[in-house]
Hints:
Elements: H1 3-15, H2 19-28, H3 33-37, H4 39-44, H5 50-77, H6 82-86, H7 92-125, H8 129-145, H9 147-176, H10 197-219, H11 226-253, H12 255-258, H13 264-272, H14 274-280
Helix pairs in contact: 2-9, 2-11, 5-10, 5-11, 7-8, 9-11, 13-14
Amino acid sequence: MSKNDHDSKARASSNDISRSQIAMAFTGSFLGAGFVSGQELTQFFAVFGSYGLLGMVAAVLMLLTLSILVMRVARRTGIIEFGKIVVKQEMPWLRAIFGVVFILFLFGVVVVMPAGAGALLNQVFGLPKIWGSALMAVCLALLGLWEAQGVLNVFRITVPCLIVMALITSVLSFFCLEGNEVVARPFSGANPLLGNWLFATIAFISYNMMVAISILVPIAPDVEAEKTIDEGIFQGAVQLLVVFVCILLPLIMHETMLTGAQLPMLMLAESIAPVWGIVYA
């Protein structure tokens, strides 16, 4: 073997995406501002009580399955253009429509993150919302310059922290606050666009799968084996389920107290102890 071949294999090996990186990327792609603050889970699941818990399990299973399929296709074909992954090449018009919808979804996600950061910093520190949003927008722009590897490095730090914080807050809420009984509500008038639990679950999957595709597809060709994809996504799904339960269950049990809250989980943390609210924020 020549020295050049050896160097090229060494570089390829160093760029291989590991199971833990896939797991963190999968979990992190869903833990946006709306998810962690509790606002997103309140609208999609908590308002339906025990049916929301059923929807949560269904959502995680579907996201797991779809993510594995998408990453396998991207790895086998080497294609990282989202439109070509989802739509057949001989249907360019449909791929163009999907591309427009995809960009609009991602734009919505990018708008939500600075808005959530602005609301958070305003509620905790009294900082004007525009400054908090601007700060997050700058951070997102810098992160975008690091490309996929930079995103993976950020997820490696933030995802474990979010899991631990959600778990601690959930446990403390059971011991420190008096909760309500979990009831079954298949329908809800809280959001007319999400009138029943099944439609809300489908909408949640559709919305979040867009974000997952944008993060998982670019790293798929660098995965050495499909087994790594399967194991990584499964580990990520377990992590997501843990965070899901730790946030959703307290939201359901303390729904009366949290009604109308802009950042329900922050309000819950502050109700446990003001200092814990700052830590969670």
